[in-house]
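Entry type: protein chain
Record version: 2
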Amino acid sequence: MTDNVRTFTDEHTRQRDRSTERSADSEETLRCPECEGHLTTDTEHGETVCADCGLVVEEDEIDHGPEWRAFDSNEKDQKSRVGAPTTNMMHDKGLSTNIGWQDRDAYGKSLSSRQRQKMQRLRTWNERFRTRDSKERNLKQALGEIDRMASALGLPDNVRETASVIYRRALDEDLLPGRSIEGVSTASLYAAARQAGTPRSLDEVTSVSRVDKDEIARTYRYIARELSLEIKPADPEQYVPRFASDLELSDEAERRARELLSTAKAQGVHSGKSPVGLAAAGVYAASLLTNQKVTQSQVSEVANISEVTIRNRYHELLEADQGTQSVA
């Protein structure tokens, strides 16, 4: 027993001595052999040089970078031979292999009938192996829904990425039982759009979703509460650029609409009112004030809100603006 303990202690001591020697050697390699100065690497010339005395310690070093040069991001993407970065927008984060559908070999020649059948069988098995269990199949379907709806709503990639992360969190915390995949994916996208400052109204989201408005609102409140999502109330000004762009209004009209909404917010007119209705009314009022011909029906179609709401909010915005001018 004593011999075993002594042997173990000796072996531990030898290992510690070897690690100390390695660390000492590494420290020596980082110091100049002449003046003990700090060494720097010159990647352009492939040299290791002392920063204090200028001694060239090593030269003709191997460059582990690419053999090509690129002068902009597009050229870099074209010359790069590695895969795309990982992304939360795919159920496997983009790490699996996809088999192309072109039925051509590396030289561009068409495959024979027997080879095409073989490749089709491989594609089928590849798709089956990409989703190993029900959880991954669920995630694949949900992320496909998020991508489809985001494309229909014109939302950028950062919103899709955020929505995918929200859905993954809901799946990991077991929030899906009793709720549909489509409902949770739609609510995740709605929450992500509001977090990113590019909100879409519930009516707009409902128009591209496979579930009704009440279920989306109910599921959104549930996941926002359970996941403690920090989402500020929607600001009417966030809708203005999109409405103005769809109506082809000038920058002056967009700026005037922002001013009207800012004035209304300062006077508390926005409290308890739909931000979409206020934004639509602000855009309509700004178009009239800048002598640009836009009808209420056109604004109503773009904002997906009734003309009655636009008229009511329009009068409230003008009254708030006139009240501010009279005080001034």
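Comment: The CA atoms of residues 11 and 17 lie 10 Å apart.
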